[in-house]
Design brief:
Blueprint: E1 2-3, H1 20-36, E2 40-45, H2 47-50, E3 55-59, H3 63-75, E4 86-93, E5 96-105, E6 118-125, H4 131-177, H5 187-199, E7 205-212, H6 215-222, H7 224-239, E8 247-250, E9 255-261, H8 266-287, E10 296-303, H9 310-326, E11 332-334, H10 337-340, H11 345-357, E12 361-370, E13 376-386, E14 392-393, H12 405-425, E15 438-442, H13 445-449, H14 453-464, E16 471-476, H15 487-498, E17 501-507, E18 524-527, H16 529-533, H17 539-555, E19 558-561, H18 567-576, E20 580-581, E21 590-591, H19 604-607
Parallel strand pairs: 10-11, 13-15, 15-16, 16-17, 17-18, 18-19, 19-20
Antiparallel strand pairs: 1-3, 2-3, 2-6, 4-5, 5-6, 7-9, 7-10, 8-9, 12-13, 12-20, 12-21, 13-14
Helix pairs in contact: 1-4, 6-7, 7-8, 11-12, 12-14
């Protein structure tokens, strides 16, 4: 019988064993009496042997003997102390003279010496059994009991080890599923949990995709360390704005996803949560003293209205997110299949491929002008998609195409073919000092990783009778992040050796380009429009532009400023000695049909006279 000391008062039939340990001790008690000749037995076990609680078992279950054993332990605790191995106590119970043998289990007499396995008390009829005989009769049983308890203690230790390993595994699993920066679910964990939840078929739910507006500029202007701090803070702000039973994850660099359980009035509740997230983002930006950072675009799709699988909902929410960004960013849009289908990435890919094959995507030519003389030095070729209704769509609305290797290379090839054919059809025109007008072709990393790109381009120019000197290859900063000697470096070196110029596009917004300037084949830098647009209002932007110009002079690079839109910006650039520029103030992009009539000299001095 098991009792938790000190509040169990009797060893009676009402307290039947219910656990594995109870049954184990009952078997010990039942076997102790016939094996030893004892008339009573008590086993006292410590927690390290039996588990988290000390256990006392007594047999037989008759009241007087059980009470006698209990009194023995309670009144003579020194007899059961760990430092005392053995002892004998005599007592008279209902006229019977009993001798109680007290021995530490695991004493030197046992097969497992000095192990703290517990204490056993055996009661013998003193009129029938001598102490010596009692001791002799008890030794085999005590040794057997010690062996059983050693085995049990080993099982407990193993169970504890397994439990610890289980906790460690659970912690590792938790860490694997968490995004290290934000502490939210990572992309894999969020997707798995969302699929499981939606697969249960209970609703309604909303899947909301969130994208921080202009996060690349945040990193560029304030540094990656600040960007990480901002992301962690945004994660906390979003968590505090959504219901506790929703699931929030970080699924990309500046992208978050929310799976939200909705009440019956789904759209109203969804819009409330989206507004709360937007407000929390704005408050955070104000708290950090950078109110311009507070924009967050959101797109949402409803389960089961818009789809019954995670993948379908994700595509619809992503489509709504594109629509939100086109609406001016900072917007929250719920998917509408009648209004937003054109934003679907899958539809975009399919429609773009068809439009490219049908010749609906053609070049526009943005003049590049010498800022000292106003003379046109060439054109940057820009892709324009002419829709069925005559709408002209720029790359800002089909930029995911540039992440698709097949379509990106097809677009580059098409722009090269169309623009060079148009250029060949123009009257002979020259720019500064008799140099030919150049066309700038934007290429992607996919193009430059293609070892046949330079050869194919060269054969096309040869067929058209155009020199390599008429070509400027415009490369985004992110393309030259690798080391010299790679495929991209070799392609640029080949192009430059043929006579083409290499321009580093959107300079100042990439990562790590400064260390590449001295080693890579580069001829000119194009200052990103965000610095040009801040020239009149932000001294820091003026300082950046001045620094780029000074560095370019030392390297021998020509500098082109993009995005000139005001006379003030033009005046600053001229005063700083910037070589060339382009922007809507000088000229919007021109279609090929009017290129022959485009001016060769622009009245720069009239628009922005020299200052000072």
């Amino acid at each position: 019988m098991i009792s938790d000391l000190p509040d169990h008062d009797a060893f009676g039939q009402d307290d039947l064993p219910v656990s594995e340990l109870d049954a184990f001790l009952d078997r010990i008690g039942a076997s102790a009496l016939p094996l030893t000749g004892a008339v009573a037995c008590l086993v006292d076990l410590p927690p390290e042997v039996v588990g988290p609680r000390a256990v006392r078992m007594a047999a037989p279950l008759e009241g007087p003997l059980a009470e006698s054993l209990r009194n023995l332990v309670d009144n003579r605790p020194e007899a059961l102390a760990l430092q005392q191995r053995r002892g004998t106590v005599e007592a008279v119970v209902k006229g019977r003279r009993l001798c109680f043998l007290i021995e530490r289990i695991g004493s030197g007499r046992s097969s497992h010496p000095a192990l703290p396995l517990g204490t056993i008390v055996l009661g013998f009829n003193a009129d029938e059994v001598s102490i010596a005989a009692a001791e002799k009769a008890s030794r085999p049983f005590i040794a057997l009991l010690a062996a059983l308890l050693v085995e049990r203690r080993g099982k407990i230790a193993m169970a504890q080890d397994m439990a610890a390993l289980g906790r460690q595994a659970a912690e590792l699993q938790r860490r694997v599923q968490k995004d290290a920066l934000s502490g939210l679910d990572n992309a894999d964990a969020f997707r798995a949990q969302a699929r499981e939840t939606l697969g249960a078929g209970r609703g309604p739910y909303a899947l909301v995709l969130m994208d921080l507006d202009n996060f690349k500029q945040i990193n560029d202007l304030h540094g990656h360390q600040f960007g990480d701090v901002y992301l962690r803070a945004i994660a906390g702000a979003l968590q505090g704005s959504v219901p506790s039973d929703s699931r929030l994850g970080r699924i990309g660099g500046d992208e978050f996803a929310l799976l939200l359980r909705l009440p019956a009035d789904a759209e109203v509740a969804l819009l409330q949560v989206m507004r709360a997230c937007s407000a929390a983002s704005a408050r955070l930006a104000e708290t950090m003293g950078k109110s311009e950072l507070g924009g967050i675009s959101m797109g949402a799709a409803l389960y089961p209205r818009h789809g019954e699988s995670y993948d379908t909902l994700f595509e619809q929410a992503d489509t709504a997110l594109y629509a939100a960004k086109e609406a001016g960013r900072g917007a929250a849009v719920i998917f509408d299949p009648h209004r937003h289908l054109r934003f679907s990435l899958r539809e975009l890919m399919r429609n773009f491929a068809g439009a490219l094959a049908a010749g609906e995507i053609g070049p526009a030519f943005h003049p590049v002008v010498d800022l000292a003389t106003g003379q046109c030095t060439g054109y940057e070729v820009l892709a324009r998609w002419r829709g069925e209704n005559g709408e002209i769509i720029g790359p800002e609305l089909f930029y995911p195409i540039f992440e698709n290797p097949v379509l990106a290379e097809q677009l580059t090839h098409s722009m090269i073919v169309q623009s060079t054919e148009i250029l060949r059809g123009l009257p002979v025109r020259t720019a500064v000092a008799g140099a030919p007008l150049r066309i700038g072709i934007n290429v992607t990393g996919f193009d430059l990783h293609n070892p046949r790109f330079t050869g194919d381009f060269g054969r096309l120019l040869s067929d058209l009778g155009l020199p390599w000197q008429a070509i400027v290859i415009e490369v985004p900063e992110t393309v030259i992040l690798g080391e010299t000697g790679g495929r991209v470096f070799e392609s640029l070196s080949e192009l430059r050796a043929c006579g083409a110029k290499i321009a580093l596009d959107d300079f100042g917004t990439g990562y790590g380009s400064l260390r590449h300037l001295g080693a890579w084949p580069i001829d000119m830098l194009k200052i990103d429009r965000q610095f040009v647009q801040g020239l009149s209002a932000h001294p820091r932007d003026r300082a950046v532009v001045e620094a780029i110009l000074g560095m370019a002079r030392r390297f021998g690079f020509r500098v082109v400023a993009e995005g000139i839109e005001t006379p003030g910006q033009l005046s600053y650039l001229r005063a700083m000695g910037c070589d060339a520029g382009q922007g809507h103030m000088i000229s919007p992009p021109l279609c090929g049909e009017v290129l022959a009539q485009a001016p060769l000299i622009y009245p720069i001095g009239e628009w922005a006279p020299d200052e000072g």
